[in-house]
Amino acid sequence: MERFPSAAALIAHHKPDRPVLAARPHAAGRAARWFLERFPGEVAYAYKANSSVFLLGALFGAGIRQFDVASLPELEDAATIPGVELHFMHPVKSRTAIRRAYHEFGVKCFALDTEDELAKIVEETGGARDLQLFVRVAVPAKNSRIPLERKFGISGQKAARLLVATRQVADELGITFHVGSQTTTPDAFVMALEEVHKLIVKAGVVVDAIDIGGGFPSRYTDSEPAPLISFIEAVRAGFDRLPVSEACRLVCEPGRALVAEAESLIVRVDARRGDELYINDGGYGALFDSAHLGFVFPVRLVGREPDAGERMAPFAMWGPTCDSIDYMKGPFLLPASVREGDYIEIGNIGAYGRALAGHFNGYGRYDEVILLDEPMYTMYGDARERVAQNA
Ligand SMILES: *Cc1c(COP(=O)(O)O)cnc(C)c1O
Asked: What is the spatial distance between Cα 3 and Cα 24, in angstroms, rounded to a whole number?
């Protein structure tokens, strides 16, 4: 893997034909250390956000030993990392996936949100007595870019009944939720923990673990979240009030917050038409969230200096496929002179960027490099203020 001091240094060295995924493992390591030092519990990584070996290596190197997987293929991949503990936190799993997870990969930790799923887990593990079972409860989405509450989660009397039923077969009974991805204010966690509180009282069960899921935010040009420490404080306060024993474990499983700023995408402009740029990656590639959810990632021109005194101008971008939904509205602010042959660094695509890229039209193949400079935006430490010049 080639290393460069910056995206500009890469372009000075050679002019890549393919789009480039540029990892900053040091940024993933910094994020992991931040969570491990400040979160008042255990930190698992949600594997689906980005499974680049360079970022996984950085997370592991920083001390992350728990990985949250959502499918059998993810489990098979993650199980190749020695010495990690895997949690299977998708509430709907195939029988094969449960069976192989337990018997072949030694997974003990599963999420569920129905009695049917509980029965599947009991049957496919052969009535195992060493399971950690987490009931996924539905919580309100508040200030979340990607709400998840309609798809999964149980609530009210049904949830209380499921907790009682799960208590009877679980070695360790847990409650889990997900406030929605890119949640920008901590009140979502406050409300979720209040729901959990009511539910524990209603069910009258002993709860051994609380897993508050992911949802911690990153920074984007159109999203300036509350400081991460305010999320940690909200979780600590809500957890401390729960009717659980001293010994109750607290777990979080961030995906986005650990890797978002640890990868950039470097694209080339293949055509310019007015204020629209045709680039060599897009909505079928690492820019899915920009095309379909309107994320505005930070951008900067790399490989040449803008003209002296040049103004910045807003651009939209088209991806390389022949489909008209392959369109990123932006606005992306770039020097007004941007033209065919220029390279652009698109920052903070580490979460759900490479993970969502497909192969439509033969695209979806990337060069890969490691960059040693700072991410364009960061949520962590002193570098928080050092933002992209064009922000
Ligand atoms: C996707 C997911 C996560 C990670 O979510 P982020 O918003 O990326 O932090 C954590 N837990 C579960 C169960 C998930 O499905």
From this structure: 10
Q: Is the pLDDT of residue 388 over 90?
A: no
Tens digits of residue pLDDT in 356-378:
999 999 899 999 999 999 999 99
List all residues whose CB is within 6 A of at least one atom of ligand 1.
Answer: 46, 48-49, 68, 70, 89, 178, 181, 213-216, 253-257, 351
CB neighbourhood size of 16 (10 A): 17
Distances from the Cα of 389 to the Cα of 125, 225, 328, 375, angstroms: 54, 19, 21, 12
Looking at the whole model, is its pTM more than 0.90? yes
Nearest CA to ligand 1 atom 11: 213
Ligand 1, pocket-test mutation among 66, 135, 211, 253, most atoms within 8 A of CB: 253
Main-chain dihedrals φ then ψ at residue 126, nearest 5 degrees: 65, 35
CA proximity to 147, closest of 176, 178, 177, 175: 178
Does the domain at residues 26-259 carry the CATH identifier 3.20.20.10? yes
pLDDT band per the 50, 70, 90 thresholds, residue 90: very high
The domain made up of 3-22+261-371 is a member of CATH 2.40.37.10: yes
